[in-house]
Design goal:
With 131 residues, the chain is mostly helical. The chain is 52% helix and 0% strand. α3 (71-92) packs antiparallel against α4.
Length: 131
Amino acid sequence: MRVQYTLPGYEPAPQNGVGAAESRTFQAKLRDVARHESVTWKQVLRLDRKPESPTSLAPPPPPASLEVRDIGAERQRMGGLLERTADSLAKHGSPVSPEDGAKINTMLGLLQEFHSSENALLAYNVNGTGV
């Protein structure tokens, strides 16, 4: 007698007999994941589907003040803002106490590091996808 302990749809069915799914290598599993199309967050939350009953409410309309910005332009604007702030602090010094100035410099350094990491990640993704 064979007992199935998994729920259908949550685990892949064994291929070529019992235990074939477990014998696959990690690289084969990674290739399978890479072959699948990426799923957006709207698909995960099922926001891309129409309501199933007529009593369901439609999503609210977006506010008129919602502005869609260019991500590249926002990244450049943030980089410019960080550079100008660092230059201003270097030229004029910090207008606050030395302890607070150290905290400001630490935070500014973290923001600059985050920005450069973000740019490196973007360059890596563009290089890999060719977009």
